[in-house]
Amino acid sequence: MPKRYLPHMDSIRTHTVPQWYSDSKFGIFIHWGIYSVPAWAYPSGRLGSIPFDERWYAYNPYAEWYCNTVRCGFGPSYEHHIKTYGKDFDYEDFADLFLAENWNPDEWAELFKASGARYVIPTTKHHDGFCLWNTKYTDFNAFQRGPKRDLITDLCRSVRSQGLRFGVYYSGMLNWHVTNNVMLSDYEVHHPENCTYEYADFAYKQMLELIDCYHPDILWNDLDWPLKGLDDLPYLFAHYYNAVPDGVTNDRWHDVWHDYKTKEYDSGKKLLDEKWECCQGMGLSFGYNQVEDLSGMMSSNELLQLLIDTVAFNGNLLLNVGPKADGTIPNSQKERLQDIGKWLGVYGKAIYNTTPYDRQKEALPTGETLYYTQTPSSVFLLIVNPKAGQSTLSFPALPLSSAHMKSLGNIPAFLKNDNGIWHLTMKNIPQNSAPVVFEFTKG
Predict the structure, then answer these.
(1) What secondary structure does DSSP assign to 69-129, as a single string?
(2) What is the pTM of this model?
(3) What whole-number distance in Å separates Cα of residue 341 and Cα of residue 162?
């Protein structure tokens, strides 16, 4: 898609990615809304790994897309809805069943802090149009329906009390409550007649409201922006950066502007020359999906490799949590966040505040994968899938002194340099070990 020139963008283009965002490396995404009541999607596969066509919409693995998936009129979600709720039960009636009766925002924030995340981004309005804050622009919100509570305000207060950054997700392109469209093959961006000036104005006003209410550290728009509202974007960005000078925005604004690029599951690219962010769930869906079991979830070690792989290639990981409708986070998700936090408590020095090294990744024939990160004073070697017990890894030497090696996790190890090949012998590695890390001091 060609770059679009808009007037009044020159000053905005002077904004750079703030250092806090580059250093943070790990954030929490939250998909929670009335779609958490049915909590159902067919686990068809990861985004980017299956054809993106009309059939994908009917077999959509994202539970947060339940409204659109059912409106397709065929497929597993449609059949489930008819069987469970009946053909006359409208999706928006779930708003009165979304009660959040067991929700404790302080417990969420404490868990996110313990996970080692540095920022949190909840969905304030997903594609279904249901808003989780007390917006003045629609009654279709959590303060008027369901929990009768301003969920975003309460969560923002709890998250920031833990010293974490707080961002907001907003679905600017889609709003099925307003348009009532079924997106079988294309979004409104490809059919501008489906998007009115009235809706573009509505999205603009709601985004300004979020900026003024929460001064979000991250402004995360989804999919795209209404074509008939593109001329508003320079004013929106100017207002945001004036309100939050060290704020940061993603790239889903019809290519008008971005601070960083996004990659979603297998869709998108790693970029060494530009800051980017990987967002995905622990399973196939962002919203809680009762159909998915543990077999469909990444293990704690797999999630740690995802974090390491992302950071080694200059990215941040935005890992999603999908709470239940009552406001509780499933234990399987809690446990993985706690495992990540424990690992970062030992090895976080190799993740936070780092930049990519000259090497990023090496897959060894023995099954281990090596990753590298660096700070001005150190280079870190991160070993994924280390073998249990004692093993020796052989790989090209780093241009550093092997005498300056330190095991961050106190793993007994010995390093020998043999004509430019390092032989690293490690001992006492437990079964199914999490990644281990060694630090090499520069100089």
Answers:
(1) HHHTSSSHHHHHHHHHH-TT--GGGGGGT---TT--HHHHHHHHHHTT-SEEEEEEE-TT-
(2) 0.96
(3) 15
